[in-house]
Amino acid sequence: xxxxxxxxxxxLHDNKAYQDKECKVLVDSELxxxxxxxxxxxxxxxxxxxxxxxxxxxxxxxxISVIRQISKETDxxxxxxxxxxxxxxxxxxxxxxxxxxxxxxxxxxxxAMLTEVSNRFGNEKIGLLVSDSVFDTDVADLASxxxxxxxFNAEFDGFYANSDFYMxxxxxxxxxxxxxxxxxxxxxxxxxxxxxxxxxxFKLNSEGxxxxxxxxxxxxxxxxxxxxxxxxxxxxxxxxxxxxxxxxRSEQWVKxxxxxxxxxxxxxxxxxxxxxxxxxxxxxxxxCHTGNYSCFYRNIARKDYxxxxxxxxxxxxxxxxxxxxxxxxEGSYTxxxxxxxxxxxxxxxxxxxxxxxxxAKNPDPEEIIYEISDFLYHVMVLMSLKxxxxxxxxxxxxxx
Length: 400
Fold this sequence. Notes:
- The protein has 400 residues and is an alpha/beta fold.
- The protein has 3 domains: 181 residues, Aldolase class I (TIM Barrel); 85 residues, Phosphoribosyl-AMP cyclohydrolase (Ubiquitin-like (UB roll)), CATH 3.10.20; 89 residues, Helix Hairpins.
- Helix content is 38%, strand content 20%.
- The strands form 3 sheets. Strands 1, 2, 3, 4, 5, 6, 7, 8 and 9 form a 9-stranded mixed β-sheet that branches. Strands 11-10-15-14 form a 4-stranded mixed β-sheet.
- Helix 1 packs parallel to helix 2.
- The protein is globular.
């Protein structure tokens, strides 16, 4: 039996998330659509179905921008539908960060293009939105023949036919982790976030607490050190939000509850002695009360060394390139490229790509290392010019 996945549905309009396609009931009036999606992720959702409710090209493009932001902020797979009139709309949804573009089985124009877009983009990139009234044998055969994923309109909570998706209206008051526990009791296998150890197996300090080292889940940067008691640990597991015990206030606290700088837990590990936890999180805003991203921002001793962490090296080189763009420096080759413009930068990228090909024929690996480094530098200048970040590139690669 495959794992059942919880898929809340939001209807996107004017950067707000609604529960209904008429856009009358907001999921939360205070939160943007992106913030709603982050809360749904923390609550235990496995995927999202985002329906683009746009009335014209301008509102459609505005929704695409919001979807692009959501795809950058959340790690949940996004299934996107609502306004597919032509093949180009499918491409827009996929390029905005969608895992799947979802066609509407109730529209003849959508079913007519299903085979074409499945062949063009791959059937794993296409979904089909169905309902009781239209999911007849012909539509079922169409979905099966094209090997595309079927979703149903979330007019009620539950599964449709033999679907692995539990569709539900987006609701921030719903504990999806509790819903998963209910499904497990009914015999379903679900995607769950649970601890393999009970809190009573931890070795606690004299205050009955366990220290937690907190890292950025993408960069491994250490953000802070805090403590948990049993209640804080259990709430972290159940809510997906990092929750700690304040020794100064003698009470539990959710990180970001007052500042909005929440930490969404990605993984929790324990050391060999069972007395220290390592949490990897998605940090919203700053981890430190000073406004710094990390609490560890003051260096008190340092020896020079060569940084070899690939992501850090790329970031440092990109930082220098960005600084040259903002603060030009006389004699800078980077500024020379920026001054010459995109045609020169593209020419250099092409030349360096050719140098890689030539170097690859040489048995000495040092030459190709040098040429790849040259190529990557020029590509980064191009990325800076086009305002593309390494985070965006790595996020796209992770979907491949």
